[in-house]
Amino acid sequence: MFAKEALSYFAIPLPDRTEMDDTQMRAQAREFYDRMRRRHTVRDYSDRPVPRDVIESCIRTAGTAPSGANHQPWHFVAIADPALKQRVRAAAEEEERRFYDGGAGDEWIKALEPIGTNADKPHLTVAPWLIVVFAQRWGTFQDGTRFKNYYVPESVNIATGFLLAALHHAGLCTLTHTPNPMKFLNEALGRPASEKPTMIIAVGHPAKDATIPSVAKQKKPLAEILSVFD
Fold first, then answer.
1. pLDDT value at position 186?
2. pTM
3. At what angle do helices 152-169 and 22-36 cross, to 10 degrees?
4. Residue 2 — pLDDT band, cuts 50, 70, 90?
5. Which is higher by pLDDT, 19 or 105?
6. pLDDT tens digits, one per residue of 114-152
7. Where does the chain have alpha helices with state H?
8. 41-209 in CATH: which number?
9. Where do the Nitroreductase domain residues begin and end (predicted)?
10. Would the CA dihedral through 141, 145, 148, 154 be positive or negative?
11. Could you tell me if 100 and 145 are in contact, meaning their C-beta atoms sit under 8 angstroms apart?
């Protein structure tokens, strides 16, 4: 993406300027909140297919996220192939069994009880798509030499947030899954050592009998998550 000879600053006028009055801003902010508060993490999926171009559009949205030095240190792998999803599930469940069989402390396991999770991850094969998020710890110039990426976790986390919002906006449900360790994903998906897998996102439509844990509806009030100095 970057060439050594092109590392210079050049300013252009702000494109895509948006002008709203205060009333319009309030309406847009409330509309987006109303949409996002209906986002739920879902573990029960139908087998209804999701078109590839929908997934591509949502990942394209993730690619517009801000990043350290604009290096865009992320890569997304979208998986619909049943055999590959099964391979990912088998490896993820192996790690999860270690987690639930003593790898996690008692406090962590206790904290998960209201969520109702366990080592079985059928959503990894039932959901029509898995999206694996990779963080690129370093990049390469066109001549093959390395360059450092900056604020990689922060940049990738922002892009992942964009992706989740885009998928929800497209009418889809998601589940974020973080087996630890996840190094098996590099081998399974042919990704280089410069990339670290950070998350598996199951994507699809909810099953007709889908449920969520009641605790998931308990969100902290604004007063607990916001401090204002004006």
1. 94
2. 0.94
3. 90
4. low
5. 19
6. 999 899 999 999 999 999 999 999 988 888 889 999 999
7. 22-36, 52-62, 82-98, 106-112, 123-126, 152-169, 184-189, 222-225
8. 3.40.109.10
9. 37-205
10. positive
11. no
Distance CA 140, CA 194 (A): 10
Look up residue 128 and give its DSSP letter: S
Q: How many CB atoms lie within 10 A of CB 217?
A: 9
**Kindly report the CA angle at 146 between 144 and 151, in degrees rounded to 5?**
140
Which tokens belong to 30? 């409330």
Q: Rounded mean pLDDT of the chain?
A: 94
For 52, other C-beta atoms within 10 Å of its C-beta total 12
The full set of domain ranges for the chain reads 41-209
Instruction: Compute how many other C-beta atoms are within 10 angstroms of the C-beta atom of residue 89.
Output: 22
pLDDT at 70 over 90: yes
What are the tokens at 167? 């998928």
Closest CA to 167 of 102, 78, 229, 74: 78
Does residue 197 sit in helix, strand or coil? strand
Task: Say how far apart CA 92 and CA 88 lie, in whole Å.
Answer: 6
Report the candidate in 65, 57, 36 with the shortest Cα–Cα distance to residue 129: 57
Percentage helix, strand, coil for the chain under 3-state DSSP, each rounded to 5: 40, 15, 40
